[in-house]
């Protein structure tokens, strides 16, 4: 017998999705993304327990999968437009920042939870980090380069200011 529990909401590319937790006869947790909600199936033996950590892990795995697919296209589009490209980038949900550049390795680390944000915010984050390939600090020349590729960057700086994961 299945039992459905509603669990908060989460965002994917800026769109809110309700989360339905279904306790059913499964051995391992699973996730399905539908048009307007995320369905998480958990084993019936977990019913009545605090499953927030399990749900968080499942959602983080979803964000990583989405980021792997989505960021590849964004990086390629921006590389073609700007000529800027890192040596490599990796996706991680354990970093505290939205993204950061290892200036020595020329590698960008991206928090998978940026997939919560609208695509324009994600593009801004990527451009911001790519501009650090040329300028290490947030000097005027850095922001001039950001503005060249993302003219409305100040709006996105404001939106993302204080955004915590």
Protein model, in words:
This protein is α/β, with parallel strands linked by helices. Helices cover about 40% and strands about 25% of the residues. The chain contains 4 helices and 7 strands, in the order E-E-E-E-H-E-E-E-H-H-H. The strands form 2 sheets. Strands 1-2-4-3 form a 4-stranded mixed sheet, covered by helices on one side. The chain has a 3-stranded mixed sheet with strand order 5-7-6, covered by helices on one side. The longest helix has about 30 residues, at about 50-80. It is elongated.
Mean pLDDT: 92
Derived structural class: alpha/beta
Q: Give the end-to-end Cα distance, rounded to a whole number of Å.
A: 36 Å
Largest sheet: 4 strands, mixed
User: What overall geometry do the principal axes of the alpha carbons give?
Assistant: elongated
Q: What is the alpha-carbon Rg in Å?
A: 19 Å
Uncertain spans, ≥5 residues at pLDDT below 50? Answer: none
The counted number of beta strands is 7
Binned, the helix content reads: 25-40%
Strand content: 25-35%
The helix-strand sequence is EEEEHEEEHHH
Strand order of the largest sheet: 1-2-4-3
Number of helices: 4
Question: Could you give the topology of this structure?
Answer:
Layout: E1 3-12, E2 15-24, E3 30-33, E4 37-43, H1 52-82, E5 88-92, E6 99-102, E7 107-111, H2 119-131, H3 140-149, H4 153-160
Parallel strand pairs: 2-4, 5-7
Antiparallel strand pairs: 1-2, 3-4, 6-7
Brief summary:
With 165 residues, the chain is an alpha/beta fold. The chain has helices at residues 52-82, 119-131, 140-149, 153-160, and strands at 3-12, 15-24, 30-33, 37-43, 88-92, 99-102, 107-111. 38% of the residues lie in helices and 27% in strands.
